[in-house]
Design brief:
Elements lengths: L4 E3 L4 H7 L5 E4 L5 H6 L7 E4 L9 E4 L2 E5 L4 H7 L5 H7 L5 H4 L4 H7 L6 H8 L2 E4 L3 E3 H4 L14 E7 L3 E8 L6 E10 L2 E7 L7 E2 L1 H9 L24 H19 L1
Parallel strand pairs: 1-3, 2-3
Antiparallel strand pairs: 4-5, 5-8, 6-7, 6-8, 9-10, 10-11, 11-12
Helix pairs in contact: 3-4
Length: 262
């Protein structure tokens, strides 16, 4: 580790002002950033902690929409979203271990956009809206590749708004040491149609499996995707699994998610 300054503002306005410094970085749960600092993969001169900003925390429901403050930790989402959006609550309850779930936040997860993280699949699969201090960004426009998002420098995620679907489920084949998704699929059925988002598999990060969506719109059953397949080209290939293996798992996890949702 190395020396740096840390600020802990109590308001969003103060956090935005602190992040105007080009050498500053936002710190939410720190589950990715702190290990990066230890390995010298990042070296900001100042960290701006968002954990003391009350307006960035909490879970509320209104008119079929679930809104989660960006600084809300995974354990709180698991507990407070259970009666509103069970699939999302179940996803939050399987992120990492209890220590991670009590520190990590939904805003930190989607701002980092790790290609194997669970929340990006839920946000994209639900057709959620990412709210920042400057604007609102549709999920389809927000995720822009591995570790890349539509956020501008100094822009802060303040909340995520989820339309609550008729049916939904998330299934992941996890890497047992990290509990990240080797492949995870979030499926949601709404009046507008079915969305299926895949995490952990592609070199481009989270993506929608549109062919499966079309098949599931015709029949929301696991068997609807039997005739589909995804090529291994462009899939992550590492010591945990080849690209072809991950491509196979996408179909398996999709069928399991549909079965669980149905």
């Amino acid at each position: 580790m190395y020396s740096f300054e840390i600020e802990r503002p109590g308001t969003l306005a103060d956090a935005v002002a602190a992040l105007a410094d080009d050498e500053a970085m936002a710190l939410s749960g720190g589950q990715t950033l702190i290990p990066s600092l230890k390995q010298r993969l990042a070296s900001p001169s100042k960290l701006v902690s968002l954990t003391a900003i009350a307006e960035l925390k909490g879970v509320c429901s209104d008119g079929g929409t679930l809104t989660i403050g960006a600084a809300t930790n995974h354990a709180t989402v698991e507990r407070e979203a259970a009666g509103i959006y069970p699939a999302l609550a179940a996803l939050a309850g399987k992120i990492g271990d209890p220590a991670v779930r009590n520190r990590g936040t939904i805003g930190g997860s989607i701002a980092n956009n790790d290609p194997s993280a669970c929340y990006p699949a839920a946000v994209l699969g639900s057709g959620a809206t990412v709210v920042t201090n400057l604007r609102e960004i549709a999920a389809d426009d927000y995720f822009q590749g591995m570790f890349a998002t539509a956020l501008d420098e100094g822009e802060i995620v303040t909340a995520v708004r989820f339309p609550v679907p008729e049916k939904a489920a998330y299934m992941k084949f996890e890497q047992p040491a990290s509990r990240f998704a080797l492949v995870g699929v979030f499926v949601a059925k709404t009046a507008e149609g079915v969305r299926a988002a895949v995490t952990g598999a592609s070199e481009e990060g989270v993506f929608r499996w549109t062919e499966a969506e079309e098949a599931l719109n015709g029949s929301f059953t696991p068997e609807a995707v039997d005739g589909l397949s995804i090529p291994g080209d462009g899939m992550i290939s590492d010591l945990h699994g080849s690209g072809a293996y991950r491509a196979h798992l996408i179909k398996v996890m999709t069928k399991r998610a549909v079965a669980a949702a149905g």
